[in-house]
Amino acid sequence: MNACKSVYDPQEDSTMLERWVRKYAEGNVLDIGTGSGIQAVTAALNPKVSSVLATDVQKEVIAYCKNCIKNRKIKFLQSDLFEKVKGKFDIIIFNPPYLPEDLKLKDLTLDGGKKGYEVIGRFLSGANAFLNPDGVILIVFSSLTKKEKVEEFIKNNLLDFEELERKHIFFEDLYVYLLRKNEFLKKLELKGIKGVKYLSKGHRGVVYTGKYKGKKIAIKATNPNSGAFGRIEIESKWLRRLNKNNIGPKLLFAENNYFAYRYVEGDLIVDFVKKSGRVQIKKILQQVLRQAYLLDSLKIDKEEMHHPVKHIIISKNKPVMIDFERAHYSQSPKNVTQLCQFLASSRLSETLASKGIKTDKNSLMGLAKVYKRNQNIKNFRKIAGLI
Ligand SMILES: C[S@@+](CC[C@H](N)C(=O)[O-])C[C@H]1O[C@@H](n2cnc3c(N)ncnc32)[C@H](O)[C@@H]1O
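A: This is the predicted complex of the input protein with S-adenosylmethionine.
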């Protein structure tokens, strides 16, 4: 039993993980949440290991380890996960706290967050940047942590996993997983994209962020569960076409099943409206309408413009439409008319009214009807004139 209360006495999860550490440890090792130092010491004893960085969020744990463990290969560092970690590693080890809040007393050695998987989620979203291309992660967790959620985090973070061991003890199952970068992540890294992180998932695509040539970018890839293959290639073609008309985020490059574009930093349209003044809002809405009219003139229907809450970002005082997944050619595109529906919708019109911008629903929808029959600049100007 450790004299220091903050130190986790090795349990079944520790010894299970330790056996795999003995097998896989090599090169430069990172042991996150080192506790008693059990994994760090086991790794350091392996002649194939050249260095071990052992971290823990609790400074008492680090003080305890520095005092008790004397091994020239091991360095100790107080850090919340990767916060103060520098460099790349061949193996990253983590026996995380994984119990949901209600199953434990307040205790950092066990507290995995409200649901139990929050610390694991944070760990997995940061790990790639510290792992060498062929490096591995060894992680242990429990059935109390929701295995499906952990696997979702793993996949979202572009990692492949293998279950090395499963053991039933008392009221839970313990799992040891081996994780590696998947082929897609390796491809992105070879292309020079750094710090790839999962951002969001749609029906057809998954979006990641990363850094390319020092600038933040977004990467949209086929969602492996969608079955809608080929859609990503089509969307990148739309973006290339629309960029010529200053619409959409700047496309950087496109490959087989993904494309990369300049990340659009800013506020979603509704948030922008909520926090901006009358003049500023009017200016932006006029620009959005003009872009919608341009799309109509090009006979391109973007779709979903009646509810573009997540698809228009106001960046540097300019609206940028994103997400052209469903764009298609049409003889009667509905961009402007759908946008009128959005402007007249009770939620938005109330917010606009609170800013002194009145959108008379009947007049707006009446003019939208006229425009629908005859999509010309004169009818468009009448709509724009109402805002
Ligand atoms: C279950 S214990 C594992 C200890 C040891 N590695 C083992 O296998 O026995 C979890 C350890 O993670 C540490 N920890 C908890 N949250 C952390 C975080 N955000 N960053 C780094 N360490 C953390 C705790 O202080 C604790 O020492």
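The longest helix spans residues 278-297. Residues 8, 10, 14, 17, 32-36, 38-39, 55-58, 61, 80-81, 95, 97, 108-109, 119 surround S-adenosylmethionine (CB under 6 Å).
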